[in-house]
Each structure stands twice: as C-alpha cells, then as structure tokens.
Write a structure and sequence with these properties.
The chain is 25% helix and 27% strand. The protein has 306 residues and is of the alpha/beta class. It has two domains: 184 residues, 3-Layer(bba) Sandwich (FAD/NAD(P)-binding domain), CATH 3.50.50; 109 residues, FAD/NAD(P)-binding domain (3-Layer(bba) Sandwich). The strands form four sheets. Strands 1, 2, 3, 4, 5, 6 and 17 form a seven-stranded mixed β-sheet that branches. α1 packs parallel to α2, α1 packs parallel to α7 and α5 packs parallel to α6. The mean pLDDT is 93.
Length: 306
C-alpha cells in the first residue's frame, strides 16, 4: 500500500523544515523525505541569524525544526528519493528500498552539496574555524591571518573577497590550477600570498580543535588563524526534476516564480538553494514559508472547487 499525503517535501533542511512547520499549521497531511546529508548537517555555527547572537548550529536548527513540525503532525521519512513521476492528479515518489509514496503537491528543497576536499582533519573544524561562505563568516576573520585552500579561479576569488575583512591572506592553490595574468595581478595588488601546493593536513589546537594552520604535501607547515575553502564545483541537487520536465538554468538551479516559488510544472514548488542559490539560511527559511503559503492556497482552492 502506498502512503498518500496532501504534500510531500523532499529535503529536510532549513527550507523544507520551515515549509513543513507552516503547512502543518494549516492542518494538511505532510511528509518530509530527507536523506540527512544536506549542507545544514555540516554547518556548525551560523552567526548571522536573527535571535541567535551567539550563533547556532545547523544540527540544532534541524532538530528544533523537526520537533516543531512534528507537533503539527508532520511525518518524517529518512530515505533518498530516486524517482518521481506524475500519475493523473498525483505525484508518485519512489525511494531506495522500494518505499513508495504519493502526494497532491510536491515541494523540492534538496539544496546543494558542497565540494569539500579529502583533507585530513577538515571536518573537525569545518564551520567552526574553517568556513565556506564569506557572506556568512567573513566577519569571523577580521584582521586575522586567513589561509584560503582552493582551486584556481574559485580559490583566488575567495581570497580576493576576503580581502575586504583582512589584509593577511595566504591562498594555497591546492590542485595547481593555472591562474590568468589578470587574476595574478589582482592577488598581488591586494598583497595576497599565492602558493601552489597540495594541502595534506589541517593542523588543529589539541584542546579546542580550532584551526591553527596547514601542512603541505611537501612537509611545509604554514600557520594561520582561520581557514576558508574555495573550490567551486558545488553540486545542485536537481537531478530528480528532469523526470518531471521542470525547467532549470544552465547551472542546474530550478527556475521558479519569484512570488509563489512554483516551478513551470503545476503543483510542484522549489525552495532554498536548489532555486535561488542564496546560500543563506534566512533566505531558505523565507523561501520555504512563501512556498508553503502558496501550496496551501492551491489546496484550499481545490477544496472550494469541489
């Protein structure tokens, strides 16, 4: 037997959770299908969110959001969706292991997957003293020596962006990607040290596990106060939408109506980084809320027409 819901949300990150809470408050039957490996699972401390002046981790937000949504009867299913198809007035969702579900409305909130290199110790300090987003965490490196570990142009651009916050930056071109003359000149003008070498290990403070520098493959140790990653190549998790004929941009982000967050396919919405690619928790929340309101309106109109 296939479990049926009014709305299924694919993705239990910030956008999906906010939508679930709001739709639960509208008393709709909701299920969130989540593979539990989204960006918010690795973000250890957001410092730019209203109401959390001392910071809050992605794990805390997710746990609180799930608890909040469950108060309104929202169901949570930990699994990975592998196929979606439209069957008359219902969407059929198929997961690993053979589990299947159906819904009248569908919200996609699968976000993006960060390109994190395989460097020893990196996850121990990621989101605490090694960062990926200058808009979120540039403030944390003011007047500190920052080591940017990156790849070619994306890494150089990260270093140049961080020059707004600090004048002490070392950019390590981890995979030796060649830089054009214009970029090299800009790095020199900003006083950014540029090295081409592979980072073998993140060095940590033994007591706090905070970032203290890096060890290069050749054995050289470079000390620093904070780290930043700049690799580019983040994966937009929008592969599923191709099955439904949903329009995407060249960079794989989903095109949505700016007011309703609905895609070009009726009764399918998208929210969060999968659409706007803002990489901001607060915008993901707003997207989820906006989508939920319009999903509710569509269900209400359907009942009125009946």
């Amino acid at each position: 037997m296939v479990n049926q819901y009014e709305v299924i949300i694919i993705g239990g990150g910030i956008a999906g959770l906010q939508a679930a809470i709001q739709l639960g408050r509208y008393k709709h039957s909701i299920a969130v299908i989540d593979s539990n490996d989204g960006r918010s699972t690795i973000c250890r401390n957001y410092h730019n969110i209203l109401g959390w002046p001392d910071g809050v981790s992605g794990e805390t937000l997710r746990n609180l959001g799930k608890m909040h949504a469950e108060r309104y009867g929202v169901s949570f299913i930990q699994n990975k969706v592998i196929k979606i198809k439209k069957n008359h007035d219902m969407f059929q969702i198929y997961c690993r292991g053979g589990d299947a579900f159906a819904a009248k409305r569908l919200l996609l909130a699968t976000g993006v997957k960060d390109n994190i290199p395989s460097i020893k110790n990196i996850y121990k300090c990621l989101g605490i003293s090694v960062y990926v987003c200058p808009d979120c965490d540039g403030y944390e490196v003011i007047d500190k020596h920052v080591i940017v570990i990156g790849s070619g142009k994306p890494g150089a651009n990260m270093a140049l962006t961080l020059a707004y916050f600090t004048g002490d930056i070392t950019f390590i071109n981890h995979d030796w990607s060649k830089l054009d003359n214009e970029t090299m000149t800009m790095l020199e003008q900003k006083g950014i040290t540029h090295l081409q070498d592979e980072v073998e290990k993140i060095l940590l403070d033994e007591e706090t596990t905070d970032f203290t520098g890096v060890r290069l493959k050749g054995g050289t140790i470079i000390r620093g106060d904070r780290g930043f990653l700049g690799f580019g190549g983040n994966v937009v998790r929008s592969e599923l939408v191709v099955q439904l004929g949903i329009e995407r941009l060249e960079n794989k982000h989903i095109i949505v109506d700016p007011r309703t967050k609905m895609t070009n396919i009726k009764y399918v919405w998208a929210a969060g980084d999968i659409a706007v690619h803002s990489e901001q928790t607060t915008i993901a929340m707003g997207d989820g809320m906006q989508a939920a309101i319009w999903i509710h309106k569509s269900l209400l109109n359907e009942k009125t027409c009946e």
